[in-house]
Structures are given as C-alpha cells and as structure tokens.
Amino acid sequence: MKKVAVLDYGSGNLRSAERALARVGADVTVTADPQEALEADGLVVPGVGAFAACMDGLRAVDGPRVIGRRLAGGRPVLGVCVGMQILFERGVEHGHDAEGCGEWPGVVEPLDAPVLPHMGWNTVQVPESSVLFDGLEDQRFYFVHSYGVRDFPLGSDGTPSPLKPPVVTWAEHGDRFVAGVENGALSATQFHPEKSGDAGAQLLSNWLRSL
C-alpha cells in the first residue's frame, strides 16, 4: 500500500482529499510536517482561495523546499486546484502579482469568460500520451475557479531537448486553459478529483499506480 501525504498548509479540502485517496487504496496522512511530506511515496498539495494567501501558507510549512526536494529526487507530487496554480511562476489576482513556486513557467490570471467563477462539470481535451487520464478521455470533472493558466510555454516551442515535453490537458470556459499537467514526477489538475465522482476516483487511482 502506497503512503500518500496530503500537505496541510491551511488551505485546501484536506478531509475530502484524504477520503478520496483512501477510497482508491492509499495509506493517507494529513500533515504539516516537512519530513513526513518528504518521505511519503506521494505528496498531494491541495489548495483553495487566493494565490498569494496559499503561497504564504505554503512557505510557513516549508512547502516550496519540500516540493523542490521531492522533484529533485524524482518523488511524485500532485497539485490540485490552487495547489496546481502555485506550481507556476506567478499569479495575478486583483492587480496583485505574487510569486509562485516556479516549477513551471507561466502566469495564473483571470479567465476570459462571460460567467465567473467557472463552477461545475466540464469535459477536458486529453492528449493520447496521458497516464493520469487513461480511460477518462470522455469524462467530466468538477471545477471551481475564476483564474487559470491560459498559456503553457514549456516544451511548446519545438526546441530539441533530451527531456520529454510535459503532457498538457486543456479545457474551455470562455477561452482555453490548462486543466492538467503531467511532467515527470510532477502532476497537477485544475479541477477537484476528490469532488469528481467515479472519474476523479479513477484519476487518483491512475496516479497512485504510477507511484
């Protein structure tokens, strides 16, 4: 049984994430302890609320260092909702520009859509090479957000590289935004797998099997 730590930094649906992971067979611990977060087979970084406030909470529990050290050792991390957004370089909310973890280039910014927040079930555009979304190409997932990443420059310029480019899953609400990323040990979803019923459970099971 794989040990999964859900990082408690004062922001996120901790108990629903814990229950959803336990449902698919993980041995789950909710923790703010950096050492526990480092040692688990997988680390889940949830998040709800404002980008800057989440980053403040994350820094308070040494989260950016923990995430960076895990990834340096090829140890899996899954970000969820704002827990995905803070993995990018910057977040711009209400005119306030906040620094993120910088694991990926890109900016979290307001969605250009007639109705915000984007709340409810939506389909996603899954690339063929996705492991996270294997068997879920026609499924719908539950979103709650007003901000997103509308441009993902990493690996999209065609420059030759020995590294595999990230696998990016997109969704649309008004315009196109990043719904999921798979990049080596680092994965993330903009939607909430723990609120997405059987499809979300299957996605978490896919991630768990990859640990």
UniProtKB/TrEMBL annotation:
Q: Which residues form a coiled coil?
A: none
EC number(s) reported in the record: 4.3.2.10, 3.5.1.2
Reactions listed under catalytic activity: 5-[(5-phospho-1-deoxy-D-ribulos-1-ylimino)methylamino]-1-(5-phospho-beta-D-ribosyl)imidazole-4-carboxamide + L-glutamine = D-erythro-1-(imidazol-4-yl)glycerol 3-phosphate + 5-amino-1-(5-phospho-beta-D-ribosyl)imidazole-4-carboxamide + L-glutamate + H(+); L-glutamine + H2O = L-glutamate + NH4(+)
Q: Which GO terms describe its cellular component?
A: cytoplasm
This protein's record includes keyword Nucleotide-binding: no
Q: Which InterPro entries match?
A: Class_I_gatase-like, GATASE, Imidazole-glycPsynth_HisH
Q: Where in the cell is it found?
A: Cytoplasm
Presence of the UniProt keyword Amino-acid biosynthesis in the record:
yes
Q: Which CDD domains match?
A: GATase1_IGP_Synthase (cd01748)
Q: State the function annotated in the UniProt record.
A: IGPS catalyzes the conversion of PRFAR and glutamine to IGP, AICAR and glutamate. The HisH subunit catalyzes the hydrolysis of glutamine to glutamate and ammonia as part of the synthesis of IGP and AICAR. The resulting ammonia molecule is channeled to the active site of HisF.
Q: How does it assemble?
A: Heterodimer of HisH and HisF.
Q: What is this protein called?
A: Imidazole glycerol phosphate synthase subunit HisH
